[in-house]
Amino acid sequence: MTHKFIPYRQKELTIEEQLTNSETFYQFLAKRRSVREFSSQPIDMKIIENIIKAASTSPSGAHKQPWTFCVVSNLEIKKQIRIAAETEEKENYESRMSNRWKEDLLPFATNWEKPFLEEAPYLIVVFKRVYELVEGEKQNNYYVNESVGIATGMLITAIHNAGLVALTHTPSPMNFLTNVLTRPENERPFLLLPVGFALKNTQVPDLQRKTLEEIIVRYE
What we know:
The protein is an alpha+beta fold. It is 39% helix and 15% strand. The chain has eight helices and six strands. The protein has helices at 15-29, 45-55, 75-96, 99-104, 116-119, 144-161, 175-180, 212-215; strands spanning 67-72, 122-129, 131-134, 137-140, 165-166, 187-196. The strands form two sheets. A four-stranded antiparallel beta sheet has the order 1-2-6-5. The protein has a two-stranded antiparallel ribbon with strand order 3-4. The longest helix is centred in the middle third of the chain and has 22 residues, at 75-96. The radius of gyration is 20 Å and the shape is globular. The termini are far apart.
C-alpha cells in the first residue's frame, strides 16, 4: 500500500530571528501561572474551540490522536463535578495524603474545598482514549499517556496565549468524571482544567522556577 506524502514547508528564519523568537516566547510563557480564583466574566465559545484545536495539533503515537476534550459550562454539571471532587479531596487530606505531601502543599494554601470548579466559566476535562471501538471491535492506540500529556501541555499554552488562566486539577481518583460526563468505556479521565479570567486582584504564591543550570545537562 502506498501512502500519500505532501511537501513540508516552513518559513526560514535567520539566526537573529530564531534567537529573538525563542527568547520572546520564553518570556511570554514565564508569565504563565496556575490560578485558583476565577472571574465570572463570560468567554466566547469560539475562543475555547480554537484553544482545543491548537491542542489537537499535538503529535501522537501513530497519529491516533487518542484524546477527547469535554467542555463543561452547564452549571448543574459543574456542581456535580465539584461535589464529587471535594468528596475525594476531603478523604485525601484526611487520610490518603502523607504528612510530607501536605507539607509540600502549604505554600499553595490549598485544602479539600474546590470552589473554582463552579466559579470558572468553563471546565475542560481531558480524557485519554486507551483504545478505539470501531464497529464493536477494539483497535489499539499507542503511547497514549505520552500523546495526551503533550497535547495537554499545548492546551495549557494555548489557554495562556488567549489571555486566559487555568489550573491543572487532578482529583484522585478521577473515575467520577467518567460517570458524571457519561463517557464511553474506552476513555479514562486524564486532567481537569478550570478555564477563565483571573478574579480581579487575585494573588498567586511567590514561587521561583528552577534555573536553567538546574534543569539542563549539556553533552558537547
